[in-house]
Structures are given as structure tokens and as C-alpha cells.
Amino acid sequence: MYQYERYFVRAGACPVMRFDTVPADAVRPVVCIDESVIPGSFFGCVQWLMKDLTTEGLVAHGTDELHMFIGGDPKDHENLNCEIDFQIENDHIVFSETAFVFVPKGCAHNIVSVKGLTRPVMHYIMQVDSSVYRAEPAAAADPAVKPAGTYDRNVVFKYAPVSGEIPPAPEGFLTFLLWIDNVKLPGAPYTEAVWFHTTNDTGPENHMHDNLDEFVAFIGGDPEHPEELNGDVSFLIGDEQIHTTKSTLVYVPRRIPHSPLLVHTLEKDMIHFSGGNGGDYSKDKVE
User: 148 is in which domain, residue-wise?
Assistant: First the structure.
């Protein structure tokens, strides 16, 4: 076993989370990461929403939480093909586009409903400062304390950094989906997401981060076979090039050199996303 392969969690190699507030037949779990599989990591879980659902009750966490919803059609990437009602305290955020929803620490929240779903939606949950998932039943705050309109803008659409900078990529290789950070939405962690469409033998330069621990994800785009990448990806971490052909979450502690990521084969489009427990993204080149 490679020294750094302990930071990789592949679909089928660990238990997946099931959430009490979401009907079991409405979701298809893919891969999860927490301290039980990688000590020191933060919690993250990938699942596909497969059918309409409604839930009852709200929950709260002792950490900030980020939800990502990506439409399952790479050729119509902004369209969720459903309508989601996400409640935070006394606000209902209703949307039908690929989006992030940011839930600050301690806020009562939940996915109230998913309606009119005609194509599966990839859903990722990350808890920024917790290495294990914890949730407590909660009630919305007194409207006099947190009136409607307090959290109705805690949703981000499109890949549109405030800086306007879009990283270079080979033509046809990817579609930019989403970007969020502390500048785009105060308090939010840095995270970005793309679709991969073809192979790529370049990848970003080797680098490390002083300001955040990072997660990196490779998720197969076929929800009928969610464990499979339908491709071969390698990722440089430390001095080891590690391959995966399964949907995978990678935890990269700060100051560990990593990248480039290379897509050697690709039979079906793949979702790739990365982020961390810092509010902004910066990297230091590794010579």
C-alpha cells in the first residue's frame, strides 16, 4: 500500500451515511468520508437524489454545512430537472438550478421537498469543522429574532468568482459548474465543481496549501452505477501517483504537496469537485 493512499476513500470500501430525514428509496448513496475511515478528515457524503421526496422536521449542527446540488445531465448542466425547497430557519430557498446552499452553524434547516424530478441529482454534503456527522432536532428561530429574509440569499449559482478569473483548461475537457468562497458568500468555505468530458494529460501544477485542508472528489456521472467512474484517474499526492477507477473522495491535509490530476481514460462524463475548510483558495507552488 502506498503511504498516501490512506487519504483515499473509494466507493464500496466504507459504510455510507443514510439520513433519517430523507426516505431511503429516494436516495442512492455513493461514498462518504469521516474520521472512521480517515482520522482527522472532515465529514463529506455524496449521494444521488433519485425521486421526489418530502421531509418533516428541521435539524441543526455545531458546524457550518455546505450542500451542493448538481443536475445529472452534463449537456444541460444548469438544469436540476426538479424543484428543491430548502429551508433555513424562517426562509424557504426554492430553486431548480445547479447550486450551493450554505447553512451557518446552529441554524435549523432541511431539504423540505424535491418535486418534479425527471433526472437524478447529485447531492454532496460537507461539514466544515467536524470529522463526523452529528445532527440534532431543531426548530426555526423566533421570527422576531431571525425574520424571513435572513438566509434567503445563502444560495450560489454558476461558476462566477468575484475576481472574474476562470482557470485555463484544454478545449472540450470540462464544463465549469459552481464556485463558492468567503468573498462570494460571507462565511462560506471555498468549493468548486466541474464536469469532465474527455481525457486530460496536463493537469494543474504540483502545489500545496498553507491556509486549508482540502477534499478532492471524482464521482462517476452514471447514477445507475454510482460506484464506477467509467474512467481511470490518477492523482499525485506526496511523491506517489495513485490511481482510482471508483467514485472517490480524497482528503489532503494542509502542506502536503499534491496534483496534477490526470484523466487517462473516460467512457462517460465525470463530476469533479474540490474545496476545503478555509474561506478562500490560495496555493503555494512546489518546486
Answer: 4-285
Question: Per residue in 1-33, pLDDT tens?
Answer: 689 999 999 998 877 888 877 888 999 999 999
Burial of 82 (C-beta count, 10 Å sphere; 0-12/13-18/19+): buried
**How many domains is the chain partitioned into structurally?**
1
The CA distance from 256 to 250, in Å, is 12
pLDDT tens per residue across span 170-228: 999 999 999 999 999 999 999 999 999 999 998 888 888 888 899 999 999 999 999 99
Cell 472574474, located at residue:
164
- 48: helix, coil or strand? strand
Sign of CA dihedral 155, 157, 163, 167: positive
Question: Among 214, 218, 217, 206, which residue's Cα sits nearest to residue 258?
Answer: 206
Q: Check whether the bond before 253 is cis (ω within 30° of 0).
A: no
SS3 state of residue 162: coil
Burial of 95 (0-12, 13-18, 19+ CB in 10 A): middle
Task: Return the exposure string of 121-158: e unless at least 16 CB atoms fall within 10 Å of the residue's CB, then b.
Answer: bbbbbbbbebbebebeebebeeeeebeeebbeebbbee
Question: Does the N-terminal peptide bond of residue 167 adopt cis geometry, omega within 30 degrees of 0?
Answer: no
Q: 192 has which bridge partners?
A: 179, 274
CATH number at residue 159: 2.60.120.10
Neighbours of 56 (CB within 10 A): 7
Parallel, antiparallel, or unpaired: how do β-strands 248-252 and 8-10 relate?
Answer: antiparallel
- Report residue 251 as a C-alpha cell: 482528503
- Evaluate the CA torsion angle 156, 162, 168, 172 in order and state its sign: positive
Rounded Cα gap, residues 13 and 248, in angstroms: 10
Distance of CA 87 to CAs 66, 97, 101, 111, Å?
Answer: 13, 16, 10, 6
